[in-house]
Design brief:
This protein has 410 residues and is α/β, with parallel strands linked by helices. It is built from 14 helices and 13 strands. It is globular and about 65 Å long.
Amino acid sequence: MPDEQPDWAAAREQMVLDPTVTMLNTGSFGPLPRPVFDRVTAIRLKLAAGPTDFYVRQAPPLLWEARERTAAFLGTTPQRLVFTTNVSAAINLVASGLRLNAPGEIVMSDHEYGCMVWCWERAGQRQGLGVRQFTLPTMATDPGEIVAAARKAITPRTRVLFFSHVLSPTGLILPAKELCALARTHGIISVVDGAHAPAMLPLDVSDVGADFYTGNLHKWLLAPSGAGFLVVGPGNEDRLQPLHVSWGYHADKYPIGEVARSTGPDARDVYGSTPRVRFLEFEGTRDFCPWLAVPAAIDFQAELGFDAVRARIADLAAYTRKVIGDTGLSLATPAARGMSGAMTAFNLPAGVSAPKLRKALWDRRIEVPVIERPDRLMVRVSHHFYTTEAEIDVLARELPACLREASGAA
């Protein structure tokens, strides 16, 4: 960590941002720091200039380096790290590749990301399993309340416990380690949607102890879009089948005729992976340049200092709670330490049209999501190190008028 406090204005200048937009939505898509943009662009130029040379000769050592660096950053080993396009691809890989005992059920909270709920519904339909959601105490003041809710939901029929490390709708941080331990004591497979955790939290995947931990690197780490991952926990190395059957399916058969057999399923091979990893990861010809640029994203925030970045985020969260709260909106994210991070949500009044509100906000060039839940409407503010108090002030100043427009009031 740097000895001096980072110059946040100078750090913001290194971000590729549209100066006409008030950007408060890293939680959906993170922008790129200039060094990361330059790195992925340079790699893509190599790919464009000589695809065969790139895929066969240049990429494998770069891929292994990216795997080692990313694994170390996440708190795991390269032998357990499978790169994916995003967290959705990683969860689909798990849900489609697992073979579960039927009859039974897949249990999850009632605040999971919508398309991931569909993913498990399809998996359940294919394997004769039900999908059941339990009510999450979203304004809990203690992590134990969340664990207690999950414990109450588990039955002898439960085969999988699926949950988000950080909730997408509200930014609530769930006690992932405790929930995985709960699943383990009941012989239940734990699958974690860690879409928002890497870089936002000081994540140590091995310590979390999930059977399968998935995540995005294009959000809070600010890696290029197309960089996600799956970490396979101990004892689960051979539990999954790949989504794609390609050249990684048989470790002893190589398409280019190389003498490339590794000395074991977890030994590094000539493709920048291991036989076990390649079995799940390789999908044929694809652009995996975003994976190779992840080390540049790690280096960028490491130079600022991850602790300093998280402290800056906490300061911005406190500022957001104050100035947006002063508009009269109530918090939808607990303020308790350890239960909230880089996203703060607020409840919106009844009678507001979500489409109209989105339009009103974007008419003012404010990029902030309006979250629709069955029982309420929310606005969710993301605050990364490059966010300024002035941007949050813009939202606070314009939001009342936007709400009037979206409710049909004069």
